[in-house]
Amino acid sequence: MRRLPLFMIASLTVAALLAGCKSESPKPVAQGQSALDIMEKVAVGANRCWFKSGDAAFKAYALAPELTSFSGRPRILLVRKGSSDIRPLLVIQAEGRPARLDAFGPLMNESLSGRIRQDVVRWANGSKDC
């Protein structure tokens, strides 16, 4: 059996003591939730607030949820409604635990991006508000 040198034991002890003194920062509401948990909330909010409500800003788009993803990145896509072009204009996805959200695509370069960002973060944190 190999023994740890004394300086390694001392270093580990000091590190453990210092870690105990570290002040904790506030935790986000969604701490510890899976990517699927978060994306289910976002998908429900997007469907209800952007599409079922008849929101004019999203009338030209359709929602395509892909929550059962084998890549570990559940996501929702916004595509142009009635178009044969299947390339998404917006991808909102989450991965990891705790989940990390990401939104990208051409719509994130438009004036609507600020609203998209605010809505997604609000829904991911559990709010049902539109």
Radius of gyration: 21 Å
- What pattern of helices and strands is seen along the backbone? HHEEEEH
Helix % is 25-40%
Mean pLDDT: 82
Helical element count?
A: 3
Secondary-structure content class: alpha+beta
Return residue spans where pLDDT drops below 50 for at least 5 consecutive residues.
4-29
Explain what you see:
The protein is α+β, with helices and mostly antiparallel strands. It has a domain at 35-124. It contains three helices and four strands; from the N terminus they run H-H-E-E-E-E-H. The protein has helices at 6-21, 35-52, 113-124, and strands at 61-66, 75-80, 90-95, 100-104. It has a four-stranded antiparallel beta sheet with strand order 1-2-3-4, covered by helices on one side. Strand 3 and strand 4 (100-104) form a beta hairpin. Helix 2 (35-52) packs across helix 3. It is globular and about 35 Å long. The termini are far apart.
SSE blueprint:
Elements: H1 6-21, H2 35-52, E1 61-66, E2 75-80, E3 90-95, E4 100-104, H3 113-124
Helix pairs in contact: 2-3
